[in-house]
Each structure stands twice: as C-alpha cells, then as structure tokens.
C-alpha cells in the first residue's frame, strides 16, 4: 500500500510540511517570530523573515533556556518536558488540526506553565491529539522564560514573554485559517504561569481582537510583581553577574550564565511596605505591572471575552507533599509562609485554622500557599470579570485527589491537566511517583472535563451556569472539595 504524502500547508512566511496521524495532522516548530539571539533576547519579538522551499515541520523544536526543576519523589517530567533543548529558533508554535482545509474550526491556543522559568510546548501533558480528534485546532506556544523573558531591565521592554504570546496570537489570527481554524473563534488558555499570562492578556489593550474566549487554570489575577519588587530581582541578578542592570550589559552574557545565577535569586525577600510576595518565594520572575491584571480589566478586551476560570482544591500540596513537608511542617513553618504572602499572617493562619479545624500544620501550610498563589487571585479575577462582562464568566473547582505518593498528593497543582487534555489513562502518569498515582482514574472524568473545555471553546458555554458574584458558586469537577 502506498503511504499518503505528508501534508504541506502554505503560510505567509513559507510552506510547512507536517505528518498525519490518527487524530489528524500535526505541524511542529513553526516560527511566529525571529530567533531571540544576542541582543534580540531583550527586544520585542520581531517578525520572522520567512524561508524558501518547504520547512520541515515534522520534528520538535528547541526550547527556551531553562533550569532543571526538582519535585522530590514526584515525577514531573510529563509536565516540564525535556528541559532546555538547545537551538536558536525556539519562538515557535506546534499545530494539531483535524485537517488543514477550509473547515473554520474553533481554535485553542495553549500557554504552558512552569513558574515563568521552565516548561515548553513539548511536554507530554500538552499533547493535543484529543482536541484535534474532537474538532479543535490546537496551537501550543513556546515563549521566552527567566531572565530573557521577564527580568525588568533598563533599555528593554517589560514582560517580554507576554509580548511573545501576543505575537503568537497575532500569528494565529493571520495564519490559522490555513490549518482549518477560524481566526474569529480563538480561545487562549493557560495553566499556572501560563494562566497568569492569560489574565494579563485580558487587561492588555494590544490583545483586543486577538481572541474571543479565555481559560485560566490555576493562575492568578494578582500574581504580578510591583516595579519595586522587580527592581530587587534585577539588582540581585546584576550583582551576581557583575554587570550593570541594563539590556545592553545583559546582551553580552550567554544563556548558560543566566541559568547558573538562578540559585542566587531563589528565595529573595520581595516583601515591601505595600506588597507581599505574590509567588511566595517560589519564583523570582513574574509579570511586572503597576496595576494587577484583575484590577485593570477595563484596559483590555476582557469585557467582550468569555472566561472559564478555576483552581484545584489542594493546590499547595504540590509544594509540600513531594519533599515530605506535609508531615514535617510545624506551626512556625506555617506562620513563616504566611508572613511571605499576607500582611497580617497571624490573622490569616487563624482564619484558615477556623475553616479547617482538623488540619495538620502541613495541611495548613498547603492551604496558605494554595490561597496565596492561586485561590485569592482567581476569586478576584472571577469577580472582576463577572462585574464587567455580563454573564460571560464560568468558574470551576477541580477536586479529584491523585493517589500519588502513598495517596498524599491529592488535588494538587497540575493534577487537572491530564483530564483537560484527555490523557489521564497514559501509563507515564501512573505509579506511586506518577502525577496521578497507581490505579485507574474515575471512568468518564477525563471525557467530562475535556468535553467542557471543548464546548466552551466552541460556544462559550462549558455546561453550567455563569458565575454570579453576589451568589458565588463554582462547578465542582471530580469530587467534592474538602
């Protein structure tokens, strides 16, 4: 039998060859901007010059420079992917589509997480086969991370990683019709840092018209650094490198050196007279804004965008369970974490203790982290969006408890992703140190969660009532929240 020829798509920058598989067609490593090399690492994304002939889109792209992140006994490789795969041209997208025809299908654009320092579109958890199978054109985005992506430097635009995502959305609007997608029906969605970037897009004027819907999975509408906090990180990075805190000086430094100094930036005290650390010391990089995204929605496209937003019920478990802190934490540890993230740490701990009277210190520590990193900022974003959008906000709470690490991981940060991408049965997610633990997941849960995301991308309705800030109720997915 003759093998069908690989599909080829003509884009404005040149032709791209992909592959066919059971879910449709797959095109990889398509540049949406010029390679960020040398001084261009600290410049806005520039248009790609294009290419002659047919570009090979059958192999995975390089990834942004990034460190290795360790989560103890928990295998997080399906989430982080292969780490730093060297190569200059990493500002790329991967596209999965049922067919590169004139189908005008709903488009979903995924922005990965990883604390603004790690992650890529190559992570196995972000495989889009199920979306293509269900009639969606899925675009996954690589963007600048760490110092090139988010360090605030004199002579460079702020939030360069966010500018990359904006450029990728511009590429989608101009190009996705060639891949069978509808540029007028685009949903941008992200998880963790990616969700926080999506929240920033909702408050960014330049994002107007680039997407119709948005999904924020375990992100925050209040996760941005103030300019004073960003200056502290910049000063520490410049001191570690022995150079001036300017884009010109940093442009002469190789990426390897940026990664070497990251331990010197870990754990910086970013508390100021007017702000706590929105990332609780877990990352020295975030967006830099004078107004938090949840408080600036009127400046961007949020009023006219449908929003699906939510968190997991035990987000903080990812940061305490894998290293044994769930069992070893003390009351002093709980108060120390609360002091990083709350202006009145004693009152915050007392309130959580009243809400969770049977909680151990480790569970309280997890609750403090979960609320500070994701819960409070998600609630503020949901309320703010509902107040200006007129019934366009839908909220969820994901409660399925992973049985990983002797049943302790629970409904931790990232556990919803296998269900959203409908890969929860994959063997590489199971076993005691796998993200979902030993044994099968509940029948139908992945189909239900994934189906809600697909429905929302198509119609703006995930299958439950819109959020009312006067009577706030979230749709529970997976299990009753604790």
TrEMBL record:
This is Carboxylic ester hydrolase. Keywords: Hydrolase. It is an enzyme of class 3 (hydrolase). It comes from Lentzea xinjiangensis. Residues 45-72 are annotated as: Disordered. It comes from the Bacteria. InterPro entries: AB_hydrolase_fold (IPR029058), CarbesteraseB (IPR002018), Carboxylesterase_B_AS (IPR019826), Type-B_Carboxylest/Lipase (IPR050309). Pfam families: COesterase (PF00135). The lineage of its organism: Bacteria, Bacillati, Actinomycetota, Actinomycetes, Pseudonocardiales. Its EC number is 3.1.1.-. Residues 6-424 form the Carboxylesterase type B domain. Belongs to the type-B carboxylesterase/lipase family. The keyword Methyltransferase does not apply. One of its GO terms (molecular function) is hydrolase activity.
